[in-house]
Design goal:
Helix 2 packs across helix 4 and helix 7 packs parallel to helix 8. 33% of the residues lie in helices and 18% in strands. The protein contains 13 helices and 15 strands. Bound molecules: adenosine-5'-diphosphate (ADP) and the ligand N[C@@H](CCC(=O)OP(=O)(O)O)C(=O)O. It catalyses: L-glutamate + ATP = L-glutamyl 5-phosphate + ADP. Keywords: Amino-acid biosynthesis, ATP-binding, Cytoplasm, Kinase, Nucleotide-binding, Proline biosynthesis, Transferase.
Length: 384
């Protein structure tokens, strides 16, 4: 799979906002954009995912990092976002970098059309030489449509554009085997599997949101998408090129070799699914190599209400999730087809169809990806 020559860079709140005065840290932003200009001169596209809107807007709504509740932070984000964008815009000008603001929610990654629109917009901006600056649209999000932290939001962006590298700049120089303030904390230079470190990541800075925990989750999303990830301190000259040129200490998360393409990742990494299909164990085995479609005759069970283009779980007879795929039919159409197996599809639906319920190019086998969601306990078997 070809990777775009793109680096996604995530900037934590502590780097862009002064924690006492809650004002922009222009010095840091200058060093950052200076280095981004260097990268762009090398022909590398950069997408910035910058936190800081909430921190920069807190004063305007009369709050502090300690006092602010959810709605205060949502209002603060609305006040701080123009300040953040304006600071990047002005400094970008000094370095000949045009910037654009892209505000996203979880729904923009989950919905197929919105995902493609977002992706197209980001690519179109880069084609025009404009650097996208991404942030979560905090002011309009609710629990259901929040990613919740910019570490994972940035990882999803890296996955969406098939980025080459993903750099998380923060206030520590990388991952330690326990909180870095604890005595004897050992620095970790390279990580293949994040799982053993999840327990060792409690605590965060005053302005930060997810601490090291969400950074590891983000690194894992990127690894699975074949993107090499680095966590490093942001407070240095040439914060990006020094990492990519191997000149300074950071933690490197190795990209998985059998990475999924952006499209496969989009199908496989759903956080919300509309429904499911059940097929025989024999058919489930045949789906493994990814060349086979799920046909009308394969369907043993249907669960949920879904429309064309929704992603479905595909379970075997034992309730084990074996694949995920995009349905070419609505649940209503599928039920009509399933209860009338001897009647022609055209007769039943009023249009011609090849009977491919999930096309092979829209299907991802889960065998190698540790993503399986077996039928949750207490869930009835999906039935037609
Ligand atoms: N095992 C660990 N290794 C490194 N840092 C850790 C670890 N556990 C907790 N942290 C803390 O994570 C914090 C960085 O996360 P966060 O405050 O969310 O920063 P940002 O605003 O850059 O996202 C640091 O303050 C660091 O002390
Ligand atoms: N979207 C929020 C930032 C959320 C967040 O993840 O913050 P951080 O842990 O500092 O990267 C903002 O712009 O303030």
């Amino acid at each position: 799979m070809s990777r775009s020559n793109t680096v996604v860079v995530k900037i934590g709140s502590t780097l862009v906002a002064n924690s006492d005065r809650l004002t922009p840290r222009f010095g840091f932003m200058q060093r950052l954009l200076d280095d981004i200009a260097r990268l762009r001169d090398r022909g590398t596209n950069v997408i910035l995912c910058s936190s800081g809107a909430v921190a920069l807007g807190l004063k305007t709504v009369g709050e502090t990092p300690e006092s602010a509740g959810i709605s205060d932070k949502q209002a603060a984000a609305a006040c701080g976002m123009p300040l953040l964008t304006n600071a990047y815009k002005q400094i970008g000008h000094e370095y000949g970098i045009e910037i654009a603001q892209v505000l996203l929610t979880l729904g923009d990654f989950e919905d197929h059309r919105r995902f493609l629109n977002t992706r197209n917009t980001v690519f179109r901006l880069m084609e025009a030489g404009v650097m996208p600056i991404v942030n979560e649209n905090d002011s309009i999000t609710t629990e259901e449509i929040r990613v919740g932290d910019n570490d994972r939001l940035a990882a999803k962006v890296a996955q969406m554009v098939d980025a080459r590298d993903f750099i998380i700049l923060t206030e520590v120089d990388g991952l330690y085997d326990r909180h870095p303030d604890e005595e004897g904390a050992k620095f970790i230079e390279e990580v293949t599997d994040v799982a053993p470190f999840m327990e060792a990541t409690k605590g965060k800075s005053t302005l930060g949101t997810g601490g090291m925990t969400t950074k590891l989750m983000a690194a894992n999303i990127a690894q699975e998408a074949g993107v090499t990830t680095y966590i490093a301190h942001g407070e240095v000259d040439h914060p990006l090129t020094s990492i990519l040129d191997g000149e300074r200490r950071c933690t490197r998360f190795v990209a998985h070799e059998d990475a999924a393409s952006g499209w496969e990742s989009w199908i496989a990494n759903r956080l919300q699914m509309a429904g499911s299909l059940r097929v025989s164990n024999e058919v489930a085995e045949e789906l493994i190599d990814g060349d086979r479609a799920v046909m009308r005759a394969d369907i043993k069970g249907i669960d949920g209400e879904f429309t064309r283009g929704d992603v479905l779980h595909i379970y075997d007879e034992d309730g084990i999730e074996r694949a995920r795929g995009l349905s070419d039919f609505t649940s209503e159409e599928l039920r009509v087809l399933a209860v009338n197996p001897h009647l022609d599809a055209e007769q039943l639906l009023g249009y011609k169809t090849k009977g491919e319920i999930v096309r092979s190019k829209n299907l991802v086998s889960l065998v190698k990806r540790h993503l399986r969601w077996d039928l949750p306990e207490g869930t009835s078997d999906p039935t037609i």
